[in-house]
Amino acid sequence: MADEQTPDLPLRVPAQSHIDGDWTKLGGETFVVTNKADDSALAHVTDGTPDDAQATMDGAWEGFLAWRATSPRERSNALRKAWELVAERADELAELMSLEMGKALPDSKGEVAYANGFLLEYSERATRIEGRHAFHETSGGRILTQKDPVGPCVFVTPWNFPLAMGTRKIAPALAAGCSVVIKPPQQTPLTMLALVGILVEAGVHPKAVSVLTTTNSREVTTALIEHPRTAKLSFTGSTPVGRNLAEQGGKALLRMSMELGGNAPFLVFDDADVPAALEGAKVAKFRNGGQACTSANRFLVHESVAEEFTKGLVEIADGLQLGAGTAEGTTLGPMIDDDAVAKVRELVDDAVERGATVAAGGNDKADGRYYPGTVLTGVPADARILHEEVFGPVAPVITFKDEEEAVRLANDTEYGLVAYAYTEGAARLLRLARTIEAGMLGMNTGLVSNPAAPFGGIKDSGFGREGGPEGFEEYLQTRYVAIPDPRD
After folding, report:
1. Which CATH class is domain 264-450?
2. CATH number of 2-260+462-479
3. Which of 129, 190, 221, 331 has the largest CB neighbor count within 10 A?
4. 160-179: pLDDT as tens digits
5. Domains 2-260+462-479 and 264-450 share a fold
């Protein structure tokens, strides 16, 4: 398998993590991973089957027994070494990511740094697993609690952040002593394969971390979930798929965490620092080409600053440089596939047909898979783009009159992943922290993600948390040991 890849990849990509720990094929078929800039072939990888899923989970159980038995310090050292190796190979990983996903190289480099932060964060938490001791309330006995790893974990990761969505799940799981099986998307498996190769090189038990690549996502994922040794499922992706997986996981009584869709509002109040808000908007909207669940989906701007803010947003959109992700100067790469472009075109057409104005970009300036930075103004309340996740570089702008209306508009969605707000008023900041319905709130910042902070949503944006101590607890289970009074 490894010999089938083209010789131009920036990193060696292992073909498959096998149940025996060797980089060999599991199944007999392969599929092609393409360069999203021109659809040329990058590599052939294993097209896993449900039988492969069974074999991989059998191996993950063996890996769990071995990895659980290692000391916290050993697990910490392996994650720390992986952090060092990722840092050493950051440029190569970023290039690989830009090739298979399409994102601009500066975005890929930013993702590598962010993703690597989880390896460092949980290398430090691995040795901080604690229980408690208490006296029995009516006797001289003792109550002991301990935190143990939950067991083999199944991770289904998305294509838009091929590295970070992996380390955010893998690092806490390995730190806790769990084994993991990752099913990456067929569009972007190479970065994950490279990461797992690094983890094994760093000292992680080869059966404790496996990748199962496939084009048959539904059946393979079902086989992983239904395996009797699977203890936890973590998924990042769309809400409809998350509902289906949660139903399957619920039947198996798995521990689960679901990071699902978003419809993030970006609020700009009358007392906002508008230049700062524009800098935040550039990150919140156009980072990763808008292909992020945390992407600002709706710009709610106070009518007194709407003209200034919109003008600045148009300048940002017009200044984005379309091109191949690895090309010098590119700040906006191709979208992931033709279906993604078609969805964005459809939403923009719908908004324009209902009365919105294209202030920058738009469908007329799109070229194949390359969609320009776009700003829409005068977007009516019934436009689909205000109610559906755009997942593209389109910024619809609507205005509000006061804080009450802003909060009402912000909360007018079934989603609740993240929200952003720009205001200089301390009292308003505190009010918004109570009234905005989102699992995360960026106050005067366009970026909320941090390895030390809990990432996750409410409402239809899912449940569970990734990152920080909250994310660590997702992979630990509490056990109670009763000790009678030794004098009895």
Report:
1. alpha beta
2. 3.40.605.10
3. 190
4. 999 999 999 999 999 999 99
5. no
Q: Where are the domains of the chain?
A: 2-260+462-479, 264-450
Active site residues: 259, 293
What is the C-alpha to C-alpha distance for residues 82 and 139, in angstroms, rounded to an integer?
48
Model pLDDT for residues 236-288, shown as the tens digit of each residue:
999 999 999 999 999 999 999 999 999 999 999 999 999 999 999 999 999 99
Per-residue pLDDT of 117-172, as tens digits, reads 999 999 999 999 999 999 988 888 999 999 999 999 999 999 999 999 999 999 99
Q: Taking the model in full, what pTM does it have?
A: 0.94
